[in-house]
Amino acid sequence: MKLISAIIKPFKLEEVKEALSEIGIEGMTVTEVKGFGRQKGHTEIYRGSEYTVDFLPKVKIEVAVSNDIAANTVATMVKAAKTGKIGDGKIFVTPLEDAVRIRTDERGESAI
Amino acid sequence: MKLISAIIKPFKLEEVKEALSEIGIEGMTVTEVKGFGRQKGHTEIYRGSEYTVDFLPKVKIEVAVSNDIAANTVATMVKAAKTGKIGDGKIFVTPLEDAVRIRTDERGESAI
Amino acid sequence: MKLISAIIKPFKLEEVKEALSEIGIEGMTVTEVKGFGRQKGHTEIYRGSEYTVDFLPKVKIEVAVSNDIAANTVATMVKAAKTGKIGDGKIFVTPLEDAVRIRTDERGESAI
Amino acid sequence: MHLKYNRFITFFLGLIAVMGFACTGFAEWESLEQFQESAAYPKFLVDNLWLLIAAGLVFVMHLGFATLESGLTQSKNTVNILFKNVFIICMGTLAYAVWGFNSMYPVDNWIWDGVIGKGGPIPDATEAVGNLTSDYADYTLWTDFIFQAMFAATAATIISGAVAERIKLGSFMVGATIIVLIGYPITGSWEWGAGWLDRLGFADFAGSSLVHAFGGFAALAGVMVLGPRKGKYLEGGKIKPILGHSMPLATIGVFLLFLGWFGFNGGSVLSADATLVSLVFVTTALAACSGGLASIFASWMVLKKPDLSMGLNGILAGLVGITAGADAVGTWEAVLIGLIAGVIVVFAILFFDKIRIDDPVGAISVHGVCGIWGTLAVGIFGGGDFLIQLLGTLSISAFAFVFAFVTFSLINVVLGLRVSEEEEFGGLDIGEHGQEAYPDFAPSSH
Amino acid sequence: MHLKYNRFITFFLGLIAVMGFACTGFAEWESLEQFQESAAYPKFLVDNLWLLIAAGLVFVMHLGFATLESGLTQSKNTVNILFKNVFIICMGTLAYAVWGFNSMYPVDNWIWDGVIGKGGPIPDATEAVGNLTSDYADYTLWTDFIFQAMFAATAATIISGAVAERIKLGSFMVGATIIVLIGYPITGSWEWGAGWLDRLGFADFAGSSLVHAFGGFAALAGVMVLGPRKGKYLEGGKIKPILGHSMPLATIGVFLLFLGWFGFNGGSVLSADATLVSLVFVTTALAACSGGLASIFASWMVLKKPDLSMGLNGILAGLVGITAGADAVGTWEAVLIGLIAGVIVVFAILFFDKIRIDDPVGAISVHGVCGIWGTLAVGIFGGGDFLIQLLGTLSISAFAFVFAFVTFSLINVVLGLRVSEEEEFGGLDIGEHGQEAYPDFAPSSH
Amino acid sequence: MHLKYNRFITFFLGLIAVMGFACTGFAEWESLEQFQESAAYPKFLVDNLWLLIAAGLVFVMHLGFATLESGLTQSKNTVNILFKNVFIICMGTLAYAVWGFNSMYPVDNWIWDGVIGKGGPIPDATEAVGNLTSDYADYTLWTDFIFQAMFAATAATIISGAVAERIKLGSFMVGATIIVLIGYPITGSWEWGAGWLDRLGFADFAGSSLVHAFGGFAALAGVMVLGPRKGKYLEGGKIKPILGHSMPLATIGVFLLFLGWFGFNGGSVLSADATLVSLVFVTTALAACSGGLASIFASWMVLKKPDLSMGLNGILAGLVGITAGADAVGTWEAVLIGLIAGVIVVFAILFFDKIRIDDPVGAISVHGVCGIWGTLAVGIFGGGDFLIQLLGTLSISAFAFVFAFVTFSLINVVLGLRVSEEEEFGGLDIGEHGQEAYPDFAPSSH
Ligand SMILES: Nc1ncnc2c1ncn2[C@@H]1O[C@H](COP(=O)(O)OP(=O)(O)O)[C@@H](O)[C@H]1O
Ligand SMILES: Nc1ncnc2c1ncn2[C@@H]1O[C@H](COP(=O)(O)OP(=O)(O)O)[C@@H](O)[C@H]1O
Ligand SMILES: Nc1ncnc2c1ncn2[C@@H]1O[C@H](COP(=O)(O)OP(=O)(O)O)[C@@H](O)[C@H]1O
């Protein structure tokens, strides 16, 4: 199994969620994060002093999937999250050794 | 070592924390997340228009543990977090290659 | 590749960010978390009743790096985040199987 | 105020005129025009204007209660608190127009003489003469109504805070309506309606008992029927406080209540009498300020930390304490009354928490306990008869408690009073209203 | 108010005196000293004071609008909303001083008789006699100005809420200035400036049409030129509500507006007349309260949940509804007017959403639709001629709509009216101001 | 106001009466009853009522300061700011009652003639006659006290904002008490207490210098002793702004201050004189509005973005600027005074930041610098002697600075003035109070 974490632009969340639903993924966990990267923050002014907001709001989507649909999941996310402009974000794939559904004690692929 | 991430219902946080303390786990990191799964959100109304809140508030607990207590940790979490109702959440186990305690530079199992 | 997660004191964020920039790391993702560990929370009072705030605000920095700079990244973070006082936090290193830059579809090390 | 007795006569005369009966008793003037040209007219204008402005100030107190109560409760129940406060001012004013006003000032129209007045709608006519009063009172019938109506809803608002975060919306609405419509005017008539307490010489200038102790003890009854919020009182006597979500809202609330109290007490002079109104302003402010300081230092000593919410409650305690005697005590007596109220309220809050009476905003301590203290203080400093003061305040408090207890118990049986545990956990905003107070911000889970 | 006609004569006389011309017409007194010693002086003082206090209360409404509008919009546009409200009160008062006041009350100085008045700056002199009015009016020229100036900015504020979250700041500032400077005084002169509507016998006591319907229909024009917020109206007729970010702010706003309305309506009596002012307080409060209850229950029935924001709009609907006839209807008629307004506003909001007129705060329904209703109600209950009322309110609303439509369309062509889609998504606070409203708190992304 | 001189005589006579001495000097009436029946009584009632209402309006300013200051500082220090404001109003009123009032208006009771007055508690008696003043003044002793008491605490509040986010709570409480108790009444007596400045012909109508410059320069001293907040001024002259946490709170604060200023300036007429009070309302509003616009456009030009917080400060700058001459300048002069104040404040804020004087809310610029400007403006536009105005405002500002500098330096030695770096980082809410302002919401870390 894989744990796929995608860091995307917040306003793409809805689209990514729907794209994942369409390929049959019905569970995911979302976290609000701040991203720092090539996309530069903006300069703001407060009472005469300029300052730079480096960290931009992003959303992290975590999805646990079985190995066989991992590649498709990533591809789907890329497609839905892409705007082509800098700051679109990253997807990270890490190995997932085990998964448990708390309600039923199910384990492994049947848990996700 | 394993990194165990549990996504649970927020009001179970205290119980899970205490259950983990009882089996000797003294460190953990908690993140507020929003979950999307079988448990459906609710319909709300604002000024005459209905809309669905899909994402439900959940809490993610991350615990780094040594391999030998990983299974017990998962079992303890499942027990403490279970309500038996839909939406109880998931536990994900990923491999942890290294851990460092920043304060002391300790490494590996002694760091967690 | 490695995914390095550092849980640090919030006011060290700026310093760690700058230290990472200096060794050429230009991307990272930051999450606000609450930590539970040896560092004990404080006692607060509300209308005559004492209660303990167990969970302390921490910041989690996630950086995806190639294997060769992983060790240096960890060392840099440790140095920048250290105050020597309890509660300085932890760094966790997990394996990263793949990375994708959404904007360009780049994969692997060139994506991070 | 003994002037009040006379003004009901006048009011009644006015009423007769309004109702279309022949106007019998304008002592000195035969027509509105004559009165307007008389030397007495400017004073009448000033008195009347002051009462209207005072009514506006008392209105501000409703905003004060709304913000104080929502500040001291959790963000997941904020829409619910605000909704209740919006409902209360709307319902309260109308209920008072339909029945309460006449029931509270029955003049000769008692169901049970001196105890229960006969209510009914306020008149509709806009005829000028009838609404003008003659040489007795200093304001029109409409002024009288609006000033008193703003008071009326206060009792329900006090209850609202104490039963917050767990009461069913519909059940609260029914209960609050019954209490404002029927309960509050009954005790009101005992004193301000020239009923049995007034006849005994009881003194309660602006309502330490009639408004505040009434509200506080009705709140106590509500809390007892409801029970505490889940998770507040743990096993082994431990208390886990449930924190209010916004100290700025709570502070705004107390400042607005302080402001409104200038109208609450200052308007209760029922004229713009320079000496009395200015004295009332001074005693009111001094008691509020000494109450605030006393609570700050008392809680600092007991709790080892300076507690903002206790300071806020202390100001209110001082204000409630001075309300019964604001016109009758001297400046330094006012300071003393406030100081004592400020200390009392700290210990009262700790006491009610110890006996597991869960009052999120401290309404029972502030309004109930300090309302009694303020009424008794008139017997100590203000020239009132202590025993009569004691009798009066206990009668009013006891009636409020019993009336509210019966009301809420009946509602509990018929409609249910408390939301489900699940709804309580998830918050009444989603549960009762399907709305969030701060949808842009995710509250953190403790 | 027919008194108004006379007061312009007086005002004009005062103006002449101020301007340095010989003072021709102090009917009874020859000098300020003489007047001050006369028996008429105390009444003059009271009347004048009440209007000043009423001006202060109307000022409070601007804070009410600022908080209501920011509460009902998203946190990423909060700085922008607040900025606009700060700008409006500053610009509005100055624009009224420079041109608007004299243009609205032209006395004999019409550009087009009864239709467009000639404006100009208010006088600078501080000479006492000239500013005192004689036996006609009850306040000084300065009092007149400040009371009316507080009204003037209101029209722009009403628009501000409806076009929120997508209008370019600079363009809004230009548009609002034109509307307050030129548009509002024109319709104002028709009635309060003794223009053609006044001559026909049209009645609009405190401005259901002149202020509220004017603002509401100018807002409608603005919304139509601008279009809805992105993402609100989905394909297939689905509506995705865009939630306001703070219900406490919205509620504070409505309570403050309610409070300010005591000055808005009560001050429009233009004296401290005891009977009239107190009646106006009562009708205003009753209509507000019945409006609130009606909206609560109407929306509860339709939407199955008790909706706080509808209750808030209901109070405002009742207030707008009673504004035209607050001095002319009886208490129970006021209740009825409020009830109907409260029901109307719920369905109006649903209706405008259905036809994709995107009004984040409900300003068009509250001020526009209920402004018309209130004006017509005077024809039904208040003794006004129904057809003249209809003619008047439609003329004012139509003028406001056309004037604002042309203004905003021209601005659209010259400066552009709408922010870029990217800016709308990111929020106007960053886009227009480079500032965040709540930098310590990260808003959650939906 | 030169009337003030006379009123102290009156006040003194009243005081004698109150104290139980024989009443010597009621010029025309021999008893209260006689006075009440006289034709002068209604005017007295109106004057007195207006001052009481004005006192209520000035009270609102304390809420304004509380919200403005907490809005412009970080959420981790919000409980602390609110607590200080609650403390200040409570302490200030009592300190003024115990000593300050009599020390500021010493009549003949000088410690050092014309320079330092002898204080003492206000009288306790409630006797009616003694509190009524005769033909000189227009209000009772109690009215005088409450109006002035509301002013007194203002000075401390101004300091509170400037030293926020780093000062130890206990030390601030001691310092603020000393300044309100001793410092403020001293400079106050120089002018309003008929001391040396008044004798020279200095003019400061409502306190541009006596209240605002005093507070502003005392704040400057506090900031200099304390030093800037950690992390604000970086190496190489770079400034890292520390953002206020809630623009709605800050905006609410400024609107409430604007409202309160109608009482601050309008009440300083010390009667309800129709011409003067209405003129003061107009000049006050015009200066506020032109100050706001000037700051908006000045900061827009300099900073390239329309800055809400600068607009807010501009309104306050205009208000402070007009305070000294609100009764003495014409309408368009008021606009000019406001415009200049609005420009000054922008550059003053930038200047103080450049020289590393860290003032989170801009209090030194708004109250200090614009207080001086306003006082000088009376010498330019209002008929005052420019050199005397200069002497007066500099004397008052210098005294405030030195007095506060010594006070805070001594406290620094004895108690310590500044919280630990760790506490400053973690926030004073947890550090000093063990409480959070928004426990339901996790603030984000920058
Ligand atoms: N090495 C990295 N490790 C973790 N997160 C990263 C890394 N690089 C980028 N990110 C995340 O991806 C987001 C987008 O990256 P950025 O460089 O701005 O644009 P792009 O994705 O177009 O290359 C960043 O805001 C950050 O959250
Ligand atoms: N495949 C998944 N990947 C990541 N998180 C998931 C996944 N499936 C479920 N979750 C998380 O688990 C939570 C509970 O899942 P849900 O399907 O609602 O109920 P249950 O756990 O009872 O099956 C979700 O809200 C989501 O946060
Ligand atoms: N086993 C663990 N798993 C996950 N997070 C941990 C673990 N132990 C500690 N942490 C995180 O590290 C933070 C610091 O740990 P703590 O024990 O307080 O101090 P120190 O790092 O100095 O040992 C905690 O607040 C928590 O967020």
Secondary-structure topology with pairs:
The complex is a heterohexamer, with three copies of chain A (112 residues) and three copies of chain D (446 residues).
Chain A: E1 2-8, H1 13-22, E2 28-36, E3 42-46, E4 49-53, E5 56-65, H2 67-81, E6 90-95, E7 98-101
Antiparallel strand pairs in A: 1-5, 1-6, 2-5, 3-4
Chain D: H1 3-19, H2 32-37, H3 41-71, H4 78-104, E1 110-112, E2 116-117, H5 128-131, H6 141-162, H7 169-191, H8 196-200, H9 208-226, H10 247-267, H11 274-303, H12 308-323, H13 331-354, H14 363-380, H15 386-414, H16 421-426, H17 428-433
Antiparallel strand pairs in D: 1-2
Helix pairs in contact in D: 3-4, 3-6, 3-10, 4-6, 4-7, 6-7, 6-9, 7-15, 9-14, 9-15, 10-11, 10-12, 11-12, 11-13, 12-13, 12-14, 13-14, 14-15
Bound molecules: adenosine-5'-diphosphate (ADP) (3 copies).
Task: Produce a short descriptive summary.
Chain A is an alpha+beta fold and 112 residues long. Chain A has helices at 13-22, 67-81, and strands at 2-8, 28-36, 42-46, 49-53, 56-65, 90-95, 98-101.
User: Largest interface, with Cβ-Cβ < 8 Å?
Assistant: D-E, 66 and 64 residues
- Cross-sheet strand order for the largest sheet of chain A: 2-5-1-6
N-to-C CA distance of chain D:
51 Å
Helices of chain D, by number, come to 17
> How many beta strands in the DSSP annotation of chain A?
7
How does the helix and strand content of chain D classify structurally? mainly alpha
Low-confidence stretches of chain A: none
Helix percentage of chain D: 55-70%
Which runs of chain D of at least 5 residues are low in confidence (pLDDT < 50)?
1-27
Described by its quaternary structure, the protein is heterohexamer
The structural class of chain A is alpha+beta
Q: What small ligands are held by the chains?
A: adenosine-5'-diphosphate
Which percent range fits the helix content of chain A? 10-25%
| Cα distance spanning the termini of chain A | 10 Å
